[in-house]
Specification:
The complex is a heterodimer of chains A (113) and B (114). Chain A is mostly beta strands and 113 residues long. Helices cover 0% and strands 46% of the residues of chain A. Chain A has no helices and nine strands. In chain A, the strands form two sheets. In chain A, strands 1-9-8-3-4 form a five-stranded mixed beta sheet, with no helix packed on it. In chain A, strands 2-7-6-5 form a four-stranded antiparallel beta sheet, with no helix packed on it. With 114 residues, chain B is mainly beta. In chain B, 0% of the residues lie in helices and 48% in strands. Chain B starts with a strand and ends with a strand. The chains are: A mainly beta (113), B mainly beta (114). Chains A and B meet through strand 3, strand 4 and strand 8 of A and strand 4, strand 5, strand 9 and strand 10 of B.
């Protein structure tokens, strides 16, 4: 699975949109982009995933560039409870490949009042 | 509510002691995983199991053992051979099917050495 690059930390004001970038320049055609987040001392939580098209769910939006070499996770109205470490991961959409995931250090997002 | 339950939340190990971390899921997932998380490092895979009575070593299996006698349960034993066991341990599961499924995590167990 391809490796990703994320900024170490970011700040966001409460109520504003948080835009978290991820670079995955070596992504291959059958690899999806997944985002998880981990609140301190808890297990990671799935947020969203996508292949080519932009995706939106109740938690966030995922914007993937046309060349698929980078993506942005958008939290439209960040709250204090969104303070967490956000992980961007790419993986092959084949069964049994969760064991091959490479978890980096993610982006530590601080939402400030 | 469906989910993954890890226990205990905090665990202390004495020198030379084996300890077992519990992981139970009621999501009817086939695959289960154990990860270790150290400060300043990403999650690292210890063991995984794709089906009952079968499990495979991950990237850092030395000093650990697992069993998968039931679909719902995937306990992890940290043996005395693991010389640096202090870490946050996470259990996860994923459903069967077409692949690419998301991981569901438990709330973790913090293991410390006395």
């Amino acid at each position: 699975d391809a490796k990703t690059t994320q900024p170490t930390s970011m700040d966001c004001a409460e109520g504003r949109a948080a835009n978290l970038p991820c670079n995955h320049s070596t992504i291959s055609g059958n690899e999806y982009v997944y985002w998880y987040r981990q609140i301190h001392s808890q297990g990671p939580q799935y947020i969203i995933h996508g292949l080519k098209n932009n995706e939106t769910n109740e938690m966030a939006s995922l914007i993937i560039t046309e060349d698929r070499k980078s993506s942005t996770l958008i939290l439209p109205h960040a709250t204090l409870r969104d303070t967490a470490v956000y992980y961007c991961i790419v993986r092959d959409y084949n069964a049994g490949n969760n064991r091959k995931l490479i978890w980096g250090l993610g982006t530590s997002l601080a939402v400030n009042p | 509510d469906g989910g993954i339950t890890q226990s205990p939340k905090y665990l202390f190990r004495k020198e030379g002691q084996n300890v077992t971390l519990s992981c139970e899921q009621n999501l009817n997932h086939d695959a289960m995983y154990w990860y270790r998380q150290d400060p300043g490092q990403g999650l690292r895979l210890i063991y995984y199991s794709q089906i009952v009575n079968d499990f495979q070593k991950g990237d850092i299996a030395e000093g650990y053992s697992v069993s998968r006698e039931k679909k719902e349960s995937f306990p992890l034993t940290v043996t005395s051979a693991q010389k640096n066991p202090t870490a946050f341990y996470l259990c996860a599961s994923s459903p069967p099917g077409q692949g690419g499924e998301k991981l569901f995590f438990g709330s973790g167990t913090q293991l410390s050495v006395l």
